[in-house]
Amino acid sequence: MSLAAQVLIEERFVRERMAPPSRFGDKAFQWLTMAMAMAVVVLVILTGWQLWRGSSLTVEKFGFHFLATSTWDPVAEQFGALPFIYGTLVSSLIALLIAVPLSIATAVYLTELAPLWIRQPLVSLTEMLAAIPSVILGLWGIFVMVPWLRDYPFPFLKHYFGWIPLFTGPIYGPCMFAGGIIIAIMILPIITSVSREILRSVPDLQREAAYGLGATRWEVTRIAVLSYARKGLFGAVILGLGRALGETMAVTMVIGNTPQIAASLFKPGYTLASVIANEFTEATTDIYLGALFEIGLVLFGVTILVNLVAQFLLKTMTTTTSATRAVQ
Amino acid sequence: MRKSSGRADNHDWRKIKNALASTGTFVSAVLVIAPLGLVFFHLLVNGASSVNWDFFTHLPKPVGEAGGGMANAIVGSLELLAIAGVIGIPVGVLGGVYLAEYGSARINSIVRFLADVLNGIPSITWGVVVYGLVVLRFKSFSAYAGGLALGLIMIPLILRTTEEVVLLVPNGYREAALALGVSRWKTIVHIVMKTASKGIITGILLALARVGGETAPLLFTAFGNRFWNHSLSQPIAALPLQIFTYAISPYDDWHRQAWAGALVLVTGVFCVNVLVRILTRGRAASVV
Question: Cα angle vertex B249, ends B247, B250, to 5°?
Answer without folding.
Answer: 120
